[in-house]
Write a structure and sequence with these properties.
This protein has about 140 residues and is of the alpha+beta class. It is built from three helices and five strands; from the N terminus they run ααβαββββ. It has one domain: Nuclear Transport Factor 2, Chain: A (Roll), CATH 3.10.450. A hairpin with a 2-residue loop joins β3 and β4.
Amino acid sequence: MQKASIAGLIALVLLLVSCKKDSDEMQIRTRVDEMALAIEAKNGREFVSYLDEQFQDQDGRTRKKIRAMLAVIFLQNKTIKVNYKIDELKVSDNTAQVLISVTNTDGNLIGFRSSRISIQSLWKKINNEWALYRARWKRID
């Protein structure tokens, strides 16, 4: 009987760990969805709210510089439509790596018009909230 209780407890712990990981992955997926919607709505303030205070991209741009870059892109384009797919999402404790493929069919996003972009992003969890703190992107077509 004691062996069954221990096995049950182990199964419960494994289930809870699995649920936590799924919850983290779902929270990140939701944040990526919301970021794409913010771009389409031309809402730079909302977009940068998902970036960590210490955010930097591959060129050293901070939250402030990203918001300024988005303001220019939003002014240059009547509409922006972002289609994306999360190719890979790995959560490890309070950090995550996310690889995203973006197809931009309308407008000029991140300096590329009508193109496919690969984005490598690093996220960290602070106070139970996921924030993007590093990003690298490149054109893939």
